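Hi there. Long-time user, first ticket. I'm pasting a complex I've been working with (about 468 residues overall). I'd like to know whether the download I got is complete or cut off, because the file seemed smaller than I expected. Thanks.
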Amino acid sequence: MDNAIILMSGGLDSTTVLSFAKKNGYNITGLSFDYGQRHRRELESSKKIADFYGIQRIVFKIDLRQIGGSSLTGDEAVEIGKLERKEIPNTYVPGRNILFLSIAAAYSELLDARTIMMGVNSVDYSGYPDCRPNFISSMEQSLQHGLDRSDLKIMAPLQYLNKGEIITMGIKNNAPYELTYSCYNGREKACGRCDSCLLRLRGFMDAGEIDPTPYETYPDFYIDYLRNLKKYKK
Amino acid sequence: MDNAIILMSGGLDSTTVLSFAKKNGYNITGLSFDYGQRHRRELESSKKIADFYGIQRIVFKIDLRQIGGSSLTGDEAVEIGKLERKEIPNTYVPGRNILFLSIAAAYSELLDARTIMMGVNSVDYSGYPDCRPNFISSMEQSLQHGLDRSDLKIMAPLQYLNKGEIITMGIKNNAPYELTYSCYNGREKACGRCDSCLLRLRGFMDAGEIDPTPYETYPDFYIDYLRNLKKYKK
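Hi, the file is complete. Here it is re-exported in full:
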């Protein structure tokens, strides 16, 4: 059985990756980061998800507030999501995936894991350059050189899927989406307004599924979707 | 004036790089890591060296003891240096430079720096794969992709110099070698026995210079060298 390290944010994408890895028989260690994020709810979620799957989970502490420059760790208000936005959103921690992969690589030595898996996605994503395929393949090569391990692989099984396809995959694999948390605001219920909530709800709509997560409010498109679904079911 | 971030370990190589950058007119921010190293002396040294040059210095805290697997952060004894050794020494923190460069990259965004400089060297080095040119050039590309900044450069001005040539460069640039600290053991005086001390002393010998650092003991080759130097000077 191959050892794999999976970057676990406690969100929908990384949980789908976990369900994929489980189905494919990997021996999994989850790696979560306590980086001073505002939405610490995601750490609780990743713990619940690790418990659900009965896998080992590491929480690596690294205080990215030392660097600053992002509303995900700072005090700046989170932007209200606009799905069509082109510029890089202010929730960006510069090169966060570069860092997370570096740490995963160090653990891969210790845990004798040849595979690092992560839930990056270049279709329904927020425009972060460190989610793009050219970054992932370049970083894989850098880790191979930097650790002198030509067999090390970064797998990004969601890379070319849209959110609806990701959710379809996860539901087929029985991913525990009710335990996941995607909202940027980190309150008890997901806000239903931020970029991450909007992408998630649109994904469930596209997949023809219902998001089990409780929301403070729903965007109009999702309310319409639920109404139509109800009609259809009648 | 170009902004540059220089990885500062407080050792001889990074101080030589600093002297090079100063000479070439960069606006420098030093970046040191408080990573749970045993030889915390290097943090004191990097502070003194930053003060000497009057540059801004950032100390980023990241506890690599969380990962373990290395005598530089753990409790395992440091190996006695053997210059001819081929295998990777046990002072290796897996992929430390990958991590350090990732953090420097994040700061490069914040500080609007296009250049990251570091003192890696592939001639007189300890065999770490994350010091080799193929890693450095691959990592430069990864950072460019991951930050979407095609102008970001990793400069490694010592890459192809041997230790003697590095020291010759530093002395030409008036590098304050008396403030540097290279020993793996971190005691008041350098041990004169570990890999790092042996490389350093051989470098001073090759450069025809005298190391201003106080040592607990000197290896035979350096004692012979000092004796011959004395003879010569008579």
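A couple of notes from our side: Residues 96-110 of chain A form the longest helix (15 residues). The two ends of chain A are 47 Å apart (CA to CA).
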